[in-house]
Each structure stands twice: as C-alpha cells, then as structure tokens.
Amino acid sequence: MTVMAAEADAPLVEPELADRVLAAALSHGGDLAELYCEQRFGLSLSIDESRLERPQQGRERGAGVRVISGETSYFAHVDGLAEPDLIRAAEAAAAALQGERTEPQPVPSAAHPELQRIEIPPEGVAAERKAEILRAADERARAGGAAIAQVMASYAETRRRVAVVNSDGRHATDDRTRTRLGVQVVAQRDGVVETGFETLGGHAGFELVERDGLAIAAEASQKGLTMLDADPAPAGTMPVVVGGGFGGVLFHEMTGHGLEFDAVQKGASVYAEKLGEQVAEPIVTAYDDGLLAGEWGTNAIDDEGTPSRKTMVIEEGRLTSYLYDLLRARQDGAESTGNGRRESFRHLPIPRMTNTYIAPGEPEPEQIIAEIDKGFYAKSFAGGQVDPATGDFVFGVSEGYLIESGKVTRPCRGATLIGNCLDALRQIDAVANDFDMKTGFCGKDGQRVPVGTGQGHVRIRELTVGGTAVG
Amino acid sequence: MSAPADLEGIAATALDAALSGGAAEAEAFVEDSTGIEIRVYDGEVESLAESAARGVGVRAWLDGRTGYAYGTDLSTDGLEQIAADAVEAAKIGDPDEHAGPPQLDGVAPATISGIHDPSLAEWDTQRKVELTQAVERACRDDDARVAAIEQTVYADESEQVAIASSGGFSGAYASTDCYAFLQAIAGENGDRETGLGFGVARAPGGLDPEAIGAEAAERATSLLGATKPKSRNCPVVLEETVAASFMGFIGGVLCADAVQRGRSPFANRLGDAIAAPALTLADDGTDPEGPASAPFDGEGTPRSRTPLIEGGALRTYLHDAYTARRGGERTTGNAARAGYRSAPSVSPSNLVISPGDAGLDDLLRDAEGGIYVTDVAGLHSGVNPVSGTFSVGASGRAISGGALGAPHTEFTIASDLATMLTAVQAAARETRWVPFGGSVKSAALLIGEMAVGGA
C-alpha cells in the first residue's frame, strides 16, 4: 500500500487547534475534556483453496471528544481531522451539558514516548512478498499430508497513529504497527472432520511473519491431524493441566476481567473488596504488562495518553492491584494503571487488559503432569468467556488430551472447561517454567482490542470438563 | 423509504472513479449513520455517546481478480483515492472465473415497508434517558433480591445505505433500529446470579421498559441457589434465546461459501432429511419486523424469503453472486455487509423457526427429567462450525413433574449440530425476535437427548 510520506508523518493535531477544540468541549462546563485523534491504515489478504483472495486496504481519520462532568461521560466522534470536524464533535459532546464554561489548561507540545522497534515496516513491503508468504504457508500446511483437506491463511497489517490531548495539560502520541498471520486447516479422514488453528502476531513489523510464519502453518496442520485421532472428551470433574502460551486466556478470563475497575466499582466483580487478600496459592504471581517488547497488547501509551506500565496484580497469591483507566482511577482516588483502552476513535475508553500473564514457576511441565493419575490436558483453547459478576467461566478446548498414569495419552475432541473464578484460581497448585505469550482479541462492551495472554503450563487440582463421554 | 440523493451520488462517483481507474467491473457501497448510546447506572447517566459515521467501500474486479478498499474521505479526491486503492488491491489476488457483481439489469428491489420508523426522530435525548432509567427501575422494583444492575444500555441508529454497481444497479434505503438491555445481579444467602433482559424495535416506542427490566430480574433471581446437575444424557429444552444462538450456527453452515469450500457438515446434502420433521427453518430478509430486513442485499440483489429446512429436509443453501455462479444456482440475496470496512460475504439475514402446535408447557411435559436451558456461554469457542461438534457452558432449570424445578448453573451441554437437528422433537408455539445468532425469529426447541456435563 502506498502512503504519502507527508500524510503519514504530519502531527495529527497541532496544540493551538487542540486548545480551541477543548475550549469548545468545555463551553457548557465539565471537569475534564479530552480529544483523541487517530489515523489508521490497514491491509489484509488471505489464501483459501490455494487461491489468493480478499485483498483489502483501508484508510480512516477521525476523532473522539469526551467531556467528563461529575460521574457522567459525554462523548461524540467524527470522521475527519479538519478543524470543522473536530469542533463539531466537541460541540456534540458538550450539547447535553448545561453548566458554565470551564477553562482548559493550555495544551503543551506533544510527549513522544519510546516506540516499539519495527524492523521492517509492513507498508514498505511489496504486496507480492505478502502473497508469497501466504502461498508458502499454504504449501507448508498441505505438506502435512493428504488428510489436510483445506488450508486458509490470512495476513493483516495495521498502522494506527494516535494523539491524545486533554484539558489537564496532557498531550501524547503513539505510532502502532501490528502484523498478524493466522492459519487454519481442515483435516479429513474416513468421514471424520477436524480443524487446526494457529496464529502469530505482535506489535511488530513484517520481520515477525518472515521469521515465524511457516512454523505456525506447520503447527496448525499438526493440530488438525492430531485431532483426527481424537476420542470424545470425558465429562466430569478431574485434575486439569492447562498448556502454556494461549492457555493464559484462562487467567485473562478467570481473573483479569474481574480486576478491571469498572466491574469492581459496581460490585459486579467477584474480586471486589478482595484487595490484599490471599486469592491463590503462593506459587501464583501475575502481571498486566503493557510494555512487553513486541507483544500484541503492547503500546507506548494507553488510549488516554497514560504511559504504559507493568502492574503486578497478584503477588505470591495475594491480590495487589486492580486495573484502572483515568475515569475510574479518579473515582477511586487511585492512579491510572495505563489500562484505558478503546477500539478506535469511535469508542469511549474503558479499563482493559494489555498483556496479562502468570509468571513462570519452578517445575518442568512434564513434572506437573507426572503427578496426575487420571486427568485432562487442555493444551490449547479456541477461546473463553466469563461473567465477572458471578465468576462463572467457560473455555472451549481446541486441543485436548487425557492424562493417564502421569502421561499425556489420547487426544479428545469437543471438550469445554467450566468453573468459577475464585474456586479455580485457588485450585492452581503448580505453575511450570515454560513461559510463552500468545495473541488474542478481547471483546468487552462491544469493543474489540488486541491483548496478549501468557503462562507456562498450569495445573488445577479439580475442574469440570464438559465433553460428550458421560460416565 | 427514502435517502438523500447525495448518498446515491457519492456511490455513483466512486463507481465511476473505479471504472475509469482501470476496473472492468466495480461496485460502491456508501453508509451514513447517526445514533446515540446511553448508559445508566443507579438512576444516573453514566455515559452518553453520539455517533455520526459515513464511509464508503469499493469493490473492483480486474481480469477475474477482486480487490476491496474503504475510507472515510468522501470528497471527490477521497473517493478517487479509495477507488484507486481498490483497483490496486485487485492486482494482488488470483483470478477466479466466478468473481464479479450480480447482473441486475431490470431486477427490482424487494418491496418492503416499515424498516424506517420516522418516530425515532421525535424522541429527544432526555426522553431516551428517561426510558433507559425506566428499564433500570422496572428491574429493581421487580424483585427485592436484585442486588445490583451493572449497567442499563439504550442505543439507536438511523442509517442510510446506497449501492451503485456496474452490474446495472443503483439504489438506496433508510432504516432505523433501537435496542435496550441490562444485566441484573441477584443475591441471596451468599449466592449471586446474573440475568439479561433485552428488547429490540425500530423506534423507542416499540420498547417495553417494564418487560425488559422484569426479564433481567426474573432471569437472575430464578437461578438463585443453583447447583450443578448430575452428568448424564437427557432431554433438553432450549429456551428461545438459546435456540436462536444454535440456529445462528445452523444458518452459518448452510451458507454456500462454507459448503463449496468443504467447511460445512451439511455439504452435499441438498434434498436429504438433515433434521427431524418438527424443524422448519427459513431465511427471510423481507419480514418487516426482522432487524436484517432490507429491499436489497450488500450487492444490490433483492432480499427474499428462502426455505432452508422444510419438514426436516434441506431445501437450499444461501448464496451471494459469487457462490451462485460457482454453484450454478441463483443468488438468494444473502450478501451481507458488516459495514463499509469489509467486503460483503454470504450470511443469513433473518432466520425464522416455524412455530409448532405445542406450547412450552407441552414441551416441558415431554422432557421429564431433563433440563430447560435458559442461557449458554462460550459459543464462539465452544462450537466448531466445520465439524459441527459443540460443548458450551449452560444454565437453566431442572424439569420435574412437567414443570420448572431447581435451578442449575456451571454445566455444559454437548453434541454436534447434525445430531442435534435430528433430535429436535418439537418447536414451541410461542415465538420471539432474538438478536442472538444474528437475527432470529425464534421458538423454544425440545431436543430428545444431549450430553450434560456437571457434577
């Protein structure tokens, strides 16, 4: 895709213009006004049935204006970044307020926090090379054998430049390049159909895909083939070992969402009023870390301009911090933890995770499996869901196995893990040393943001496995 | 049903730009929407968000190759840039003999009325806030065990859409939508349960705040004191919202795209009995009450009613122009747009389950010893749409003595889509429009047997 250099690098908003927009936003009062400007370029391409298809590119510029007055947020967004657009959004946000004008602090020149290192900016890579990577991924996945009936692979790159200014004198920018490759296979043998899926993504450039793209194609293929030999999953309660990497989605759902302060504040989280309490065994220490180099959930600043940081949420089993955005931090007399995120300029920021993970423990993964006589190994998940208010969660297992006499044995299909957050967190009795991070998209209140999840292998003493093999 | 001429004009300008920029065929889609979202907490407005979005998406075809581009700059220069991006994108892909817009010369859009309700414009923000507060209040007043209401949301949208295509089509329409929902948290004796209440309509006057609030309260309180059921195989009655979620998956795997690419458990089954005779399912993009109804689909083809499963037999798959050409069939007008930011693809419009003769009471009587499933969780990760296997989290009530008994949570229901369809013993007489699984006019379904994973 061709991006004119001037357009790509010019500031999204000048301080003098931002001053005028914030003044318009506060023309009917308010405690805080904020202007969030964004420019997006995106390109995606996929291969299916060995044919390159769905090439797509898009460009968007827009802004969101928020006015906070007391406990209420007023918000309006607009396409375009010209002065009339921004003033229109400011006036729309202010329209429902009925107070006296308040004066914003002057907008300073922008702070430019350190950006992630992008070795190969994807917009500078020829489309042919992106096509070649997909063809190679298709070929590598099909090398798994005749049982690989279908291969779909998709490549996507985005560049988001953001600028945030607010009436408290904040002005910060970020420039975010993300690259992602996903490969899915359909494996088929003797009337049995299974799928295998693997993804690779980061706050990184094309180097990521060049380096590891083909490896994930082979992994997706292997997953699909393995599941062809699967038996129906057991149904019942048993010890469960959760795989490293995307297994961290368990912690993301089970604990992370319940720490987001919007839920905590309303008593809609089972972790409310638990700060300082022992919620897990001392072997569990966990973080939300928006600074992890090159990771999918990493940014220099959050979407309110707060510098990203590493927040310890559980220290040796004790709950140490919630996750805040500016609004909820203000309401709780706390400081924002840099978790104010939004899907785009069309959305209000809310507390969201960045990269969330359980820190690695001591034992080898084989060791924590060897101690189980009869159990279930959830190596990889398709995703999960939690109701933070009750703590009930559910996870779809995409690759699962039986554990028999301390060994991982037969693969199982159609398993779901189900349980309650506080119980399951307390039941974690081993964390292995094989730490890994994976990428995911997290949906909340209709907003989808990139997040990282991670951990080593984790063992849960007892959890319900919902399969079809009853009894 | 009207839209400003300028929207059609923008579509025509973008189409011309793509054709003069080198595309052999092209299509432009323009969307212009305004809306509001109100969130209320504890009687007060928590947030009030106005939205105004305009964007254009252009598909360009060149030597059998397809490219797509979108943007928000609707000036002439901006449209030319988007058109040029689409033509450039088309050069990346591989050729496909079936690619191209539908041929629509002389084809009239479906006649449909009622998808645009002018009364939406008569509601000012304050009145909408009051409606949202009324929903919250109705929930709180319904049952003293409602401990908290996390948030009560009202949103509406007034949208205009225009399409211009080199396949011989130019058209526009306007529609309105609104919805309200809330999540209640009920508490008693240390137990906490949640429940959702919702309503959808064309304008706020069609929403019943009392009913929406009460639904959330009743769903939450009815689960208080829940236990895990015993793991077993047993009959299951899927409440209409749950039936809708499953029918959404069925609609998805009956899309010709999945079928042609070998990713549907129902490939090569046209004419076969894939379900029990009790199940009849249609796709209907013309029902005025259906949220997805419109005079034409995302490519300009008239929306229509398409029988999918009739008396258990598979009648047809759902098509857009591409899959129809590839399969030697006629398009059913099921090219769907998620907005201007993505190219159209085959998807159900509104799915309609034909109601049965029996009431819900009769279904419960025939499911003795089973479970009435009122909610499912983890669908996006728990259903494999290619193999059809599923295992999802569930909550509901025991069925005992022909009536609803003790509440159950934290269990799973598991089966596969093909087996589930053949086990449908009855659809209930009562129907309801449900915005889950896409958009479904749903009815409760009695499934003869499913695996329940619990204690």
How do you describe this structure in short?
Chain A has a six-stranded antiparallel β-sheet. In chain A, strands 11-10-9-14-21-20 form a six-stranded mixed β-sheet, with helices on one face.
Question: How would you sum up this structure, described in words?
Answer:
The complex is a heterodimer of chains A (471) and B (455). Chain A has helices at 5-9, 15-25, 83-94, 127-142, 207-228, 249-259, 261-265, 326-332, 365-370, 421-426, and strands spanning 32-48, 51-69, 72-79, 148-166, 170-189, 192-202, 231-232, 234-242, 286-289, 310-315, 318-319, 340-341, 350-351, 355-358, 374-387, 392-404, 407-413, 416-420, 428-431, 436-444, 447-455, 458-466, 469-470. By secondary structure, chain A is an alpha+beta fold. Chain A has two domains: 5-228, 2-Layer Sandwich (PmbA/TldD fold); 232-470, no CATH class. A six-stranded antiparallel sheet of chain A has the order 3-2-1-4-5-6. Chain A has a six-stranded mixed sheet with strand order 11-10-9-14-21-20, covered by helices on one side. Chain A has a five-stranded mixed β-barrel with strand order 8-15-16-18-22. The model of chain A is unreliable at 1-6 (pLDDT under 50). With 455 residues, chain B is an alpha+beta fold. Chain B has two domains: 5-222, 2-Layer Sandwich (PmbA/TldD fold); 232-453, no CATH class. Chain B is 23% helix and 38% strand. Chain B has ten helices and 20 strands. In chain B, the strands form four sheets. Chain B has a six-stranded antiparallel sheet. Chain B has a six-stranded mixed sheet with strand order 10-9-8-13-19-18, covered by helices on one side. The chains are: A alpha+beta (471), B alpha+beta (455). At the A-B interface, strand 2, strand 3, helix 4, strand 6 and strand 8 of A face strand 2, strand 3, helix 2, strand 4 and strand 6 of B.
Give the mean pLDDT of chain B: 95
Count of helical stretches of chain A: 10
- Residue stretches of chain A low in confidence (pLDDT < 50, at least 5 long) are 1-6
What Rg of chain A do the Cα atoms give? 24 Å
| Helix/strand structural class of chain B | alpha+beta
How would you sum up the global shape of chain A? Answer: globular
Count of extended strands of chain B: 20
